[in-house]
Amino acid sequence: MAVKLYEFEGRELFRRYGIPVTEYGVAGSAEEARRLSEEFGGRVVVKAQVLVAGRGKAGGVKVAETPARAAEIAAEMLGSSIKGERVKTVIVTPYTEIARELYLGFIVDRARRKSVLIASGEGGVDIEVLAKTSPSNVLKLEVDPLTGLRDYQIRRAVRFMHLSDKLAEDAVKILKGLYRLFTEMDCELAEINPLALTPEQNLVALDSKIIIDDNALFRHKEFTRPLSESGLEEEARRLGFTAVELDGDIGIIGNGAGLTMATMDMVKLKGGRPANFLDVGGGAAEDVVDKAARLLLTHPRVKVLFVNILGGITRCDEVAKGLVSAYKSVGQKKRVVVRLMGTNEEEGKRILRENGLLHYDSMEEAAEVAASLGG
Amino acid sequence: MAILVDANTRVLVQGITGRQGAFHTRAMLRYGTKVEAGVTPGKGGQSVEGVPVYDSVEEAVAIHRGINTSLIMVPAPYAADAVYEALDNGIKLVVIITEHVPIHDTVKFIRYAGLQDAHIIGPNCPGVITPGESKVGIMPGHIFKKGNVGIVSRSGTLTYEIAYTMTLKGLGQSTCVGIGGDPVVGLSFIEVLEMFRKDPETEAVVLIGEIGGDMEERAAAYIKESGYPKPVVAYIAGRTAPPEKRMGHAGAIISMGAGDPESKVRALNEAGVYVASTPSEIAEKLSKLMG
């Protein structure tokens, strides 16, 4: 799962890469918010640190005229939930007058297989919405990953945002910094929205949206997230699987996202209701399958476990051993339907048979059986 | 003929001494693939299943001059370097099995390969097989059968499922290309469709997609605009997925815009592509189309 950064983490990165941000402090209590507000003096903004979109409209961003009011707002926000996400910290930042809001971002564009610079003279809004409603106000420039962002592209973006010559130099610095951040930090998305132009003609980043590619976390260990929440999806992630919780009673294990999704589709087509599905990935060994099967067999809603494995890099004998081990350890209360095919298939089937587990050759037949065993 | 790999394909396996590397080298050799050499830095001089191992690609290609394809099975943090090493030594087809390769690494080496007229397949893919000739990847060889249907797919195991149901019905395959499940991959549906269009052995094409991204929509547009001359039958995985849930592949996760199953099915139908509702229906439909 890609790693989304909190605004305060994004601001920290902006600073590291020379992108001007307004002063700010992170507060975990009302008292800290009051102190920060006193330190900044005057009007401040208190912003809940959550990852869900649309924080502002949900009451997660409020202006305070006094330190006492900032403390009051922080007290309300901390521990509350915004669109289902608990607020653990807020930031306090001086209120900034805005003459104009701009947008700057870099994204990996899967279709073009390149990075794209996106710029707009109209920030503060959802850029995807703006790109649809008023595409002429959104500039998209492909950046060659080998040569990087070129100066002519930067000049083009600066002109597009209608910045005066006096500001152009600052904008160039911001664009270069953001591109460096985007590539060096392995971002899928790095966005300044809004980039504010103040009445004093300064450019300053007011919010950040940064998503780091989880496959690159070995280069950015500081952003590895501890998994603290409970629930099947998190538990599966902790074990290194991808799982999705649904609302039926048939647990599904497959290998490979495509096959696992197709298995879910097939169970539904046969009238069954999937409880969840879990992709054990490529090359799952005995212990991995054991963990996955245990997770679903102990799930209260799962009545039937349907395992659909096509061995390529995954070996059927390893899968069978893992299933048998999980089945035995959790007691034989739940029905298990297995479809095995591919690498070391015969050995896998033999292990299943010897341990009294049903196996089928056809995915359709197995799905039908699983659906009929479900409620 | 077929596409990408055939009896003349001579393979280098990078990461040959790993558990998976050795296992699949054996499976490829058994299938009849000409695996000429392997590379694992620091393990030069060893051999795996009788295949000589070298410390570098440079040494391997100096001795095995016929090598024209590399299979990458090294861990993700080292995958990009292995790809550059293959490309810099003149290898024009690089198949990357490794999953979890950082996306910024991928966009860079794909661009680099493009400048050298080399093809990248993957990352996070099962490889390519031309049944009866060569298997460059990790798919179980015995479920494929030589024939006239090309398969191009974003999914690994689902491809095996569909190929197997075709084989059981006597419908063989010209070449099967697993393009990979990542959001950014080397060869896309369109490029492989183009190769199948030119291949005289391929009479029909099976396209296997999944929810997320817009590669299927773009393939549909290509089929429509090019007046694609061969019948195409498709399958889209994840059609019953609740829209608020994000599924499996990284490819299915990052959706910027398009990506829902209805949009894909509609686009494909409009391009004259039949979209099967189960994997086994593909073989039935093909039997009818190909008489």
General description of the model:
Chain A has 375 residues and is an alpha+beta fold. Chain A has three domains: 72 residues, Dna Ligase, domain 1; 124 residues, D-amino Acid Aminotransferase, Chain A, domain 1 (2-Layer Sandwich); 142 residues, 3-Layer(aba) Sandwich (Rossmann fold). Chain A is built from 13 helices and 19 strands. In chain A, the strands form four sheets. In chain A, strands 1, 8, 9, 10, 11, 12 and 13 form a seven-stranded antiparallel sheet that branches. A six-stranded mixed sheet of chain A has the order 14-16-15-17-18-19, sandwiched between helices. Chain A has a four-stranded antiparallel sheet with strand order 2-7-3-4. In chain A, helix 2 packs antiparallel against helix 4 and helix 6 packs across helix 7. The longest helix of chain A is centred in the middle third of the chain and has 20 residues. Chain A is elongated. Chain A starts with a strand and ends with a helix. The relative contact order of chain A is 0.10. Chain B folds into two domains: 112 residues, Rossmann fold (3-Layer(aba) Sandwich); 151 residues, Succinyl-CoA synthetase domains (Rossmann fold). In chain B, a hairpin with a 2-residue loop joins strand 3 and strand 4. Chain B is globular. Chain B starts with 9 loop residues before the first strand and ends with a helix. At the A-B interface, strand 8, helix 9 and strand 17 of A face helix 1, helix 4, helix 5 and helix 8 of B.
